[in-house]
Amino acid sequence: MVSISLCMIVKNEEDSIGRCLESIYQLVDEINIIDTGSNDQTKKIASKYTNRIYDFEWVHDFSKARNYAFEKATKDYILWLDADDVFLEEDQQKLLALKLNLESSVDSVTMKYILATDEYGNVTSSLRRNRLVKRRNGFRWIGAVHEYLEVWGNIMNSEVAVTHKSIHHDSDRNLKIYEKKLLTGEDFSPRDLYYFANELKDHRQFKRAIEFYEKFLSTEKGWIEDNIAACRNLADCYLEIFDKERMIKSLLRSFTYTAPRPEICCRLAHYFIEKNDYQSAVFWYGSATKTGVTSDNLGIQNQAYSTWIPHIQLCVCYDALGDYEKANHHNELAGTYRPNDPKYLHNKGYLETKIPIEKVGVGNET
Known about the structure:
Number of helices: 14
Mean pLDDT: 93
Order of helices and strands: EHEHEHEEHEEEEEHHHHHHHHHH
CATH architecture of the domain at 4-164: Alpha-Beta Complex
Number of strands: 10
CATH superfamily of the domain at 4-164: Spore Coat Polysaccharide Biosynthesis Protein SpsA, Chain A
Low-confidence stretches: none
CATH topology of the domain at 4-164: Spore Coat Polysaccharide Biosynthesis Protein SpsA, Chain A
Distance between the termini: 51 Å
């Protein structure tokens, strides 16, 4: 069985660090807490779980803090978490099984990162991250903001998930770091350009965001998932400034990088619904249900765009086209994901007035 060092960087996390450590402390062999300047009870709470607590002067660079944390690790593998992450009970069991059976030839293990779920427990936003890495490989973090762990070698994709349960977040922190880099004339990597554009978009500086998304894409050096997301975010920005022509062009631009993604398909379909072109909308919503993303994809995924959303909207489209049996079929498929959703229940009642009662809810294949 391999041994595991947990490494975390924290600051003023008294509301969440206990919850995080409680979910993992029995599964790791060492806990290293790197505090970057807390003035609350963070270190006191952490001391209930470990005496390996270190101070690190914050220098506005996340990778430096994370690399320092990794340097403190002494076990076979390093697991990294943020204070507002947790392992749910089923994932604790999966991690234990992974620890018992992990072969030493594995250099890195990716885990699913659950960012959001709906009220029915459906995952609505997730991605994969290299979460457990071999210590002796000396993997390093790169980037002052939105840092990433550069890994190589034998990478294993596991079914273990880390669940993000955010309590609070400094919404201006990252933007301030990027603005400071810009003022001092530091060179922005393609990744910096992309994430700076994201921060600008989140702060509703849409025209500046467009400028930096375009700069990012023009480098032609971006990670494919960031390229696709940049196209999607450009579409958001153009929609905000009422430029639908460029919005559509931005969505279509994503097709130059890979096959159509479900969210892009749904957004194109919505555009055609607004034009009352239901046949075209059916094509794009149907494509969303058939276009998946492979399990080893590290980009952010929103499963709702390949499940609930296209099926509930296909119900609307087929109703408009007068094909009530197909409308019923897709409404029932939508209901498998959100069985008590008011839209599904409303459609179900409405369709009972349109087709024989014995067929409503059957969801016959079409």
